[in-house]
Amino acid sequence: MLNGRKPLSLPAQIFDLLLIELTNWRWSWRSMLIIATIAPLLSIVALGVFARDAGPEALRYVLTGNVVMALMFGIMGNVQSRFNFMRVMGGLDFFATLPVSKFALILAVVLGFLLLSLPSIVVTAGLGALILGVPLSISPLILLVVPACAVPLAGIGAIIGIRGRTPQESGAINLLVTLVLAGLGPVLIPPERLPDWLVAVGRASPATYAASALRETLLGPVTAALAVDLLALCSFGLVSFWLVGRYLDWRQR
């Protein structure tokens, strides 16, 4: 009991915190969408020039790899920035005074940026398919795959934001991690065009499984490999969120 009142349930906490998060971005969501869309589309145009000579499979990798990039720019980067801002500016102290769980705050931030990123993901996939001439074959399972891809990437962003000492340091680390994840394994490039060691290392990256799951549900066909991708993404997500909860100190300065 809190002042004679029952504390809010976890879903109610998440919903209220989500409204707070969405309100914070009511003036800047347009610029966020533009940034999260332009970079992947420019990458599609540039890589598509070289991938056309490599065949349709290479074009498929370019498209889905850049949808993953849209997720990293739109979710991982923004979650990183948000948590670092709250840590540096004392926002975590404010939320610590409220009768809410820190895991409710984490989920609300991730869900908020996922909702704000959906338009950029749709535009990147749609325009990218037109630019590259890749036919889409969208499976209903895409509704499960996109959140599964977003969760581990958001967890990585939150860890960077919480651990970064300054916004500049946190932003630089996030950009470096984004480039590493995009180049680590068969995300943008088919595995047969990569050295074996890089393909093997890529198995330790959530971006590899995100790109694979998106290829199956955006372009088809859906195979049993999707279950492996989802299991890996869920495992990465659980580990990253456990680390966020471990490192997130309400009174951290």
> H/E element string?
HHHHHHHHHH
> How many DSSP H or I helices?
10
The CA-CA distance between the termini, in Å, is 29 Å
Mean pLDDT: 87
Number of strands: 0
Write up this protein.
The protein has 253 residues and is mostly helical. The chain has one domain. Helix content is 76%, strand content 0%. The chain contains ten helices and no strands. Helix 2 packs antiparallel against helix 3 and helix 6 runs parallel beside helix 10. The model has no long low-confidence stretch (mean pLDDT 87).
Task: Give the arrangement of secondary structure elements.
Layout: H1 10-24, H2 29-51, H3 56-89, H4 91-96, H5 102-132, H6 142-163, H7 167-183, H8 196-202, H9 206-219, H10 225-247
Helix pairs in contact: 1-5, 2-3, 2-5, 3-5, 3-6, 3-7, 3-9, 6-7, 6-9, 6-10, 9-10
Key traits:
mainly alpha
Provide a compact summary of the structure.
The protein has helices at 10-24, 29-51, 56-89, 91-96, 102-132, 142-163, 167-183, 196-202, 206-219, 225-247. It is an all-alpha fold.
